Amino acid sequence: MDEWNKVLISPHTKIQEMLRIIDRYASQIALVVNEDHELLGTVTDGDVRRGILKGIPMDSPVEQIMNTKPVTIPEIKDKKSILNILKINKLRHLPVVDDSGYVIGIERLDDLVNSPRNEYWVVLMAGGLGKRLGPLTNNCSKPMLPIGDKPVLETIMNNFIEQGFCHFCFSIHYKADQIEAYFGDGSQWGAEIQYIHEDVMMGTAGSLSLLPVKTEKPVIVMNGDILTKLNFDQLIGFHLEHHAKVTVAVSTYDFQVPYGVIKADKDRLVGFEEKPVYTNFINAGIYVLDRDVIDQIPKNSYFDMNNLLETILCNGEPVFVFPIREYWIDIGKVEDFNRAALDFYEVFK
User: Fold this and answer.
1) Contact criterion met (CB below 8 Å) for 326 and 231
2) In the predicted structure, residue 2 carries a pLDDT above the cut 70
3) Do the Cβ atoms of 94 and 85 come closer than 8 Å?
4) String of b and e for 306-330 (b: at least 16 CB within 10 Å)?
5) CA nearest neighbour of 219 among 118, 301, 80
6) Could you tell me the residue ranges of all domains in the chain?
7) What is the CATH number of domain 118-347?
8) For 26-69, what is the HEC assignment?
9) pLDDT of 73-104, one tens digit each?
10) What predicted TM-score, i.e. pTM, was given to this entire model?
11) What is the pLDDT of residues 305-340, one digit of tens each?
12) Closest by alpha carbon to 49, among 220, 281, 221?
């Protein structure tokens, strides 16, 4: 990485500023150093997501989430040796330090290997009626509504394609002919598109029982009314690393109580908090499912994703959550549609 010195930060740098830095330089890692560039620790995208799950605010210093004992290497000319160290330690980045522990560079997996096209399948659920967006959806399916200069579904697909994904399956029902006529087989985008035709509404997961593709790899499933800049490669990596059966992407939702909250011990006032803000995780409509999980969905039946998650949990199989720290919006209501339209050119251009 030629611009490795651009991702050197102090332990007092706020997490939100650190994210702007690693996103700008597409590094996925920042090196925490003192004034003399001595390595104190590292912060990766994964560290940030774990911090979100712990409720650590984004305006906190990175020293609260950094890895203080990262794997490092001296300067090595043999790229094969570096690649072996990365693979053995299951890492994508290695800080390069001298004998005194001062940073002199970064080695990245992406710089050492050619990134192949991603072989994972992406299923986009695009069959809903979009009733809450009426009258916009009276003559147009929700995923085909234009935001910016293209339909929502095209923006979603392009985002995946930019990240190396090329295999798609669209689950369609309402105004299905519009979607199939526009996208065809996907060759115009250098992609492959197959279709699941829902003759009747099958819920948020039922149509997956009709998945026509043959794959043993996990499958990404995403609602067709979501706009996000989520790093899907990291999502897949998280799923594999945790040996999950299902991974559910989650977003944070803040709710402010419009009143002062009383704290009481039985009938005695012990304190109060003025208009507190509570943060919760909400289902972001993005999932990674192992192939055998899809096989548990009843054939040709109405079945919601929540039913599937409950089934997997009741079976005692591992379900993990993956917090989204990037842009995310569910275009479910008119006000959300309008907001996404305002955000489009800043976020997706």
Assistant:
1) yes
2) no
3) yes
4) ebbbebbeeeeeebebbbbbeebbb
5) 118
6) 4-112, 118-347
7) 3.90.550.10
8) CCCEEEEECCCCEEEEEEEHHHHHHHHHCCCCCCCEHHHCCECC
9) 998 878 888 888 888 888 888 999 999 999 99
10) 0.85
11) 999 999 999 999 999 999 999 999 999 899 999 999
12) 281
- Looking up tokens 């000319």 gives 77
Q: What per-residue string of b and e applies to 122-136 under the rule 16 or more CB within 10 Å gives b?
A: bbbbbbbebebbeee
Tokens 């799950």 -> residue: 53
Burial (Cβ within 10 Å: 0-12, 13-18, ≥19) of residue 201: middle
What is the model's pLDDT at position 257? Answer: 87
Alpha helices in the chain (DSSP H): 15-24, 45-53, 79-88, 109-112, 152-162, 176-183, 232-241, 291-294, 305-314, 334-347
CB atoms within 10 A of CB 18: 24
Query: Can you read off the two tokens belonging to residue 275?
Result: 């208009």
Tabulate helix, strand, coil % of the chain (nearest 5): 30, 30, 35
Q: Is 146 helix (H, G, I), strand (E, B) or coil?
A: strand
Residue type, 150: K
| 3-state secondary structure at position 128 | coil
CATH of domain 4-112: 3.10.580.10
- 4-112 matches 118-347 in fold: no
Q: What are phi and psi of 160, to 5 degrees?
A: -65, -45
